[in-house]
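Lab channel / #folding
Pinned by the channel admin:
"Please post every new chain as: sequence first, then the structure tokens as a reply. Keep commentary short and put observations after the output so the thread stays searchable."

First post following the new format, from NK:
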Amino acid sequence: QLPLVESGGGSVQAGGSLRLSCTASGRTLRIFVMGWFRQAPGKVREFVARISRSGGSTYYADFVKGRFSISWDNAKDTVYLQMNRLDSEDTAVYYCAAGILYVSEYNYWGQGTQVTVSS
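Reply from TO:
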């Protein structure tokens, strides 16, 4: 098992910022990649961003480029998602996920944290 716990969600006005955190526990050295996903009401879950342990390479969905930033604090086993210039379309439940083998395959998921952006 590799529990993931998200925090930092909440309500913010359009144009504002939030920082989400995802802390892993257990056999965290197995983690190869960490990612953030989101699911808005009535929509499918979509990829937001990911970061690899090796080299810290990052990748973002087009709709968040220039607004969101993902980072990894290895000492704290925590991944962050800094979200700036939020708009109402960013309203969703945000999930973090961990993969142990491939950058596009996630084996463990958190329970999600709600982000609500009001216009």
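NK: Residues 40 and 92 are 4 Å apart (CA to CA).
TO: also worth noting, The mean pLDDT is 95.
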